[in-house]
Amino acid sequence: MNAMAEMEFVDRASSPAALVSYLYGLLGECFGYPDADLVESIRSGALRQQLQNLCFALDKGLCLGLDLSPLHDAEATEDALAVEYTRLFDAGAHGTGCSLNGGLQQGPQMKVMEEAVRFYNHFGLTLTEDNKELPDHITTELNFLHFLAYGEHQLTARGESAAACQLAQRDFIARHPGRWIPLMAAKLEPMQPDPLFMVLTQLLERLLNRELARLEALHGAASLKPSGDLPFGGI
């Protein structure tokens, strides 16, 4: 699902889980390598409007105190964003920058990737050969949370139990992006990043914290200990 293309169908009547799903999807696209679509959404102000609408519909506290102006920049260019993205994030693969791979923020990377893959496989998801990123990359992890949150929305809409999707979200956040995004944010700030990437990181961190608190209120605290073949209990 292309989150940017889907935004026009989201309104304040959408369920909280659907709003969360779209937020994950949109933020996942924002943390990918900059392309023409992303740059156009920044230049036109569509990105700011989309994120602001979603946050206000879900929880106004997500944006409270955040300067969202970097999300709308009529002068943004694909080349400039690509250079900044590479400086901040791509060098992280060599241990010199701010990696977007969880296993390089809080490893060992092979174990982190193996557990992430167990989560994906449990829901019948596999990484295709043309997938550009590793299992522990933020775009891959956010796409998975996008899938789980939308699954929660669909199950709830049908009057069925959404516990499976909620438990998976809880444990995945707690053991993957919820653990390492704060580490990434701490490394990013002293690098004096383009404000766009800083506000996206802050917004993502707030969303993950909000969702983990919600899911733990429903199902108790998540265990940080991997549990064999199944990534989480309760199903």
UniProtKB/TrEMBL annotation:
<dbReference type="InterPro" id="IPR020945">
    <property type="entry name" value="DMSO/NO3_reduct_chaperone"/>
</dbReference>
<keyword id="KW-0143">Chaperone</keyword>
<dbReference type="InterPro" id="IPR050289">
    <property type="entry name" value="TorD/DmsD_chaperones"/>
</dbReference>
<protein>
    <submittedName>
        <fullName>Uncharacterized protein</fullName>
    </submittedName>
</protein>
<dbReference type="Pfam" id="PF02613">
    <property type="entry name" value="Nitrate_red_del"/>
</dbReference>
<dbReference type="InterPro" id="IPR036411">
    <property type="entry name" value="TorD-like_sf"/>
</dbReference>
